[in-house]
Design goal:
With 482 residues, the chain is mainly alpha-helical. It has a domain at 342-455: Serine Threonine Protein Phosphatase 5, Tetratricopeptide repeat. Helix content is 66%, strand content 1%. A two-stranded parallel sheet has the order 1-2. The protein is globular. PPR repeats lie at residues 307-341, 377-411. Keywords: Repeat, Transit peptide. It comes from Oryza brachyantha (malo sina).
Length: 482
């Protein structure tokens, strides 16, 4: 997609995205970065922002690069009200540190008199003369070290045109973290003697670079006691909490959360979600439930959409920890409070219960889907058909298949093949032949996969993104050019 964008082949870029979704691939944060940057560079800033707003429902992380692209485009278009919303999301929602384009956009917004909500960035906008070195400035997407390397190389290329006399010595946080990995007294003494001016940005980068959570914690505690006026803020605490949660250090996480609560520091909403998700990896279900119950005191009052996302994260963690009963109790509690899960959350729970052989629970969830006035999509139907077929209940799977066809949802080829195979095994040869005949009548053949994925993306959300993307480079594009 990025190669097509560079070649200004808009149709091929959109088609690549369409193929990705149709073939069952799940777009990641980097894919959406390409989409947002493509839209913004083509002048479709409002549409790029609309895609950006959809990312939480797709469970896609919103990255520094996306914020930079949108901030630059909004500032250039003079859309400062939307830029103010973007800044609020960056601070309270995602906890992202502003990149160079975002800082420039905030400065432009302040020059135009829009200062509300930008007071906390005054230090970021004013260079610290005590710092005698340069640190790589832009965070990568976070998917891999290679992506960070690519971003660093791009930044260095941009700086080659500057006068060499103005360049400061380069400090690479990853090399520094590698040298300190053992946290030996001699290395720590050399670090103290180096006279480094610690800033939240540098501390966050160093924390991220440590391979061991224990070393990151040692550094986190050590840097808080250094002379020079450094104090941990919401960014450094959020980074440390996420690192500890990923390693399963529940006691340290709870100590740190207790400390920030007593200090009146509110962490970003994304950090709370991340902690709950990481507790699913380390099988700390009880700790995840405690964080969920205390979320208001950690990140402030939750909006209804954010509460829905947090509930989905906890349900997924409970499923990973094989706590199906607790998951169903939480689901009932949330629905009683008017918090309705989305289709991908229901699909995830269905897949979990089906894997445990609980077909009654699966059928009950399908009833709750209808109770919420949600229309099952192709991916949910495929999850249900697979569940019934694996438990040798092909008759129930066939009933769902008929319901699916009646709703105008086309099955994907693997789901149809599994249903036919299960019907044959159970001796229902006529029904298997009927399924084959009905699918032969499908115009264009059956899709290779049903768009969507358990826990993360529904077909409807992916379709929204595609419709926005496709629409910008067809009739609207022609109208704009005219």
């Amino acid at each position: 997609m990025e190669l097509h964008v560079r070649a200004a082949d808009h149709a091929a870029t959109v088609e690549a995205f369409r193929s990705m979704v149709r073939e069952g691939a799940l777009p990641n944060a980097r894919t959406y970065t390409v989409v947002i940057a493509h839209l913004a560079s083509a002048g479709f800033v409002d549409q790029a922002l609309e895609v950006f707003r959809l990312l939480p429902s797709l469970r896609a992380r919103r990255t520094t690069r996306q914020y930079n692209v949108l901030a630059e485009a909004l500032a250039a278009a003079g859309k400062f009200e939307q830029l103010r919303w973007l800044v609020r999301e960056m601070v309270a929602g995602d906890g992202v540190m502003p990149g160079p384009q975002m800082r420039a956009a905030i400065a432009a917004m302040r020059e135009e008199g829009h200062t509300e909500g930008t007071e906390d960035f005054l230090e970021e906008l004013s260079p610290n003369e005590r710092i005698g070195y340069a640190v790589d400035d832009v965070e990568g997407e976070g998917d891999s070290e290679e992506e960070e390397d690519d971003e660093d190389a791009a930044n260095r290329d941009k700086g080659r045109g500057r006068a060499q006399a103005t360049l400061k010595p380069w400090l690479d946080p990853r090399e520094l973290a590698r040298a300190l990995e053992g946290w030996e007294p001699r290395e720590v003494a050399e670090l103290e003697a180096a006279g480094i001016v610690w800033t939240p940005r540098l501390v966050c980068k160093l924390l991220r670079a440590f391979k061991k959570a224990e070393t990151a914690w040692e550094f986190f505690c050590w840097v808080a006691c250094r002379p020079g006026g450094f104090a941990h803020d919401r960014h450094t605490v959020a980074r440390m909490v996420a690192i500890l949660a990923r390693a399963g250090h529940v006691e340290l996480v709870e100590r740190l959360l207790g400390k920030v609560r007593s200090d009146g520091i509110l962490l970003p909403f994304a950090t709370v979600r991340l902690v709950i998700d990481f507790y699913g990896l380390s099988k700390k279900a009880d700790a995840a439930i405690r964080v969920f119950r205390e979320a208001d005191s950690i990140c402030g009052a939750l909006s209804r959409p954010n509460l829905t996302l947090l509930c989905s994260s906890l349900l997924r963690t409970l499923a990973k920890c094989r706590r199906g009963v607790d998951a169903m109790e939480l689901l009932e509690e949330m629905m009683a409070r008017g918090v309705l899960p989305d289709l991908q959350t229901f699909s995830g729970l269905m897949e979990h219960l089906a894997g445990a052989g609980d077909l009654k629970g699966v059928h009950r969830l399908l009833g709750l889907v209808r109770q919420c006035d949600l229309q099952p999509d192709g991916y949910m139907y495929s999850v249900l058909v697979r569940a019934y077929c694996k438990q040798e209940r092909a008759a129930l799977a066939l009933k769902l298949f008929d319901e699916m066809r009646g709703a105008g949802v086309a099955p994907d080829a693997p789901t149809k093949a599994l249903l036919v195979k299960s019907l044959w095994r159970e001796g229902k040869l006529r029904e298997a032949a009927q399924v084959e005949e009905r699918c032969e009548d499908t115009a264009g053949g059956l899709p290779e996969a049903s768009p969507g994925h358990v826990w993360t993306a529904s077909a409807a959300d992916l379709e929204k993104v595609f419709d926005i993307y496709y629409g910008c480079f067809t009739q609207p594009r022609a109208a704009q050019t005219a």
